[in-house]
């Protein structure tokens, strides 16, 4: 045996020589420290396999640091690391490392001293590890760490509950694999690269069974010893139940409960957005105001329950004439609004006429078997560049509706066709 190697074998401190992370030499003290069955069983193993997950990033950075030219031949400062032995026991080891040449190639020599001799320290370490493992195993959040290329390096057991995968099925794959929409992942990456961290960032992921869930991500960037971006570390949690509740609350806040269409507030917000878009792009926009004729008579003759049924049938008849890009809302009582983007006055009058005839053709029947029909009055207004606000267009459509009712109802009217 080489005299230098014999000397290393006799040292009471643990000594490892690694190349590209793999163990090339181990002395007897290393075998005993790592509780390996033999020195040969350590050769070829990755030294990082014995480092505790919480210390892996710090350990990797220190090993990289000794390899830079400025550090050549100088060991780094000793530091304590948690390691897990071949038998699964936890050790606290004081480790220092230095860059060397081994068999003509760059290598790292590591020297470690076991600092867990005292039973009190060992007991504290065991308790700490048990607490950490219990917390890690049962936490609802999913811990994860990726490298600079987005490859998942480590993921916590919570991923079983959240995504339905085993951790080893996730590790080694790109985090992007679990996003149903690349835009979600791109938005997350842009935000964290800009700010260095994100908190409660929204997104979605796909479970093993194909279910899409809402997630909330809190993460921060990782850097290597040279200050270069090295990956991302953080947690994410399943917030589908919370998001569904938020969506339901939003629906309740923006929906007319009787007819199922947008309520007044939601419709006017939509109209304001469409108006702003038309003003910015010079695109046509048409607004219809509708009123169910003689609604009070229906209530008085058949009762309020039948009046509600008439309103629901009226709303559905209006929706049946609309495109996906159009919007309809109940403004109050028996008055409704319809928004027609990219629609000229002539086209809007055609839509209004179809609605007029469609509602005339409805045949409704009350609980007593009495049949009756309903009609509507419609006012049509269009966007003008001279408008000061949405209110001007709303006023023209409302005035046109008043004109249609004044002329006898069951008809369409527009101030624009009268030159006003």
From TrEMBL:
Gene3D superfamilies: 3.30.70.270, PAS domain. Residues 199-251 form the PAC domain. Signal peptide: none annotated. Residues 128-182 form the PAS domain. SUPFAM superfamilies: Nucleotide cyclase, PYP-like sensor domain (PAS domain). Pfam families: GGDEF, PAS_4, PAS_9. Residues 283-417 form the GGDEF domain. NCBIfam families: GGDEF, sensory_box. This is Sensor domain-containing diguanylate cyclase.
């Amino acid at each position: 045996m080489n005299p230098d190697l014999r000397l290393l074998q006799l040292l009471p401190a643990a000594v490892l020589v690694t190349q590209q992370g793999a163990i090339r030499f181990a002395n007897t003290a290393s075998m005993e420290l790592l509780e390996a069955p033999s020195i040969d069983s350590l050769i070829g193993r990755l030294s990082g396999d014995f480092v505790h997950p919480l210390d892996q990033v710090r350990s990797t950075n220190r090993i990289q640091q000794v390899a830079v030219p400025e550090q050549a031949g100088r060991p780094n400062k000793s530091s304590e690391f948690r390691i897990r032995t071949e038998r699964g026991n936890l050790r606290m080891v004081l480790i220092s490392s230095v860059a060397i040449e081994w068999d003509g190639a760059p290598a790292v020599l590591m020297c470690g001293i076991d600092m867990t001799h005292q039973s009190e320290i060992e007991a504290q370490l065991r308790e700490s590890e048990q607490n950490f493992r219990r917390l890690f195993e049962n936490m609802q959040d999913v811990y994860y760490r990726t490298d600079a290329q987005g490859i998942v390096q480590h993921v916590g057991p919570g991923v079983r509950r959240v995504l339905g995968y085993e951790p080893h099925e996730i590790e080694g794959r790109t985090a992007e694999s679990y996003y149903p929409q690349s835009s979600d992942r791109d938005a997350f990456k842009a935000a964290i690269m800009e700010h260095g961290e994100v908190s409660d960032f929204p997104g979605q992921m796909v479970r093993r069974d194909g279910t899409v869930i809402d997630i909330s991500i809190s993460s921060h960037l990782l850097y290597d010893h040279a200050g270069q971006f090295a990956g991302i570390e953080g947690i994410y949690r399943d917030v589908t139940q919370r998001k569904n509740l938020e969506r339901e609350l939003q629906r309740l806040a923006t929906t007319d409960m009787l007819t199922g269409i947008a309520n007044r507030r939601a419709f006017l917000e939509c109209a304001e957005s469409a108006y702003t878009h038309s003003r910015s792009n010079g695109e046509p926009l048409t607004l219809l105001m509708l009123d169910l004729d003689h609604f009070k008579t229906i209530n008085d003759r058949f009762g309020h329950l039948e009046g509600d049924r008439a309103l629901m049938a009226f709303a559905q008849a209006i929706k049946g004439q609309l495109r996906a890009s159009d919007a309809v809302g109940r403004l109050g009582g028996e008055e409704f609004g319809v928004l027609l983007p990219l629609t000229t006055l002539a086209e809007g009058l055609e839509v209004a006429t179809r609605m007029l005839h469609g509602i005339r053709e409805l045949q409704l029947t009350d609980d007593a078997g009495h049949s009756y029909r309903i009609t509507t009055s419609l006012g049509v207004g269009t966007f003008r560049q001279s408008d000061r606000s949405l209110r001007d267009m709303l006023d023209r459509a409302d005035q046109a509706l008043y004109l249609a009712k004044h002329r006898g109802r069951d008809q369409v009217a527009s101030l624009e066709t009268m030159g006003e």
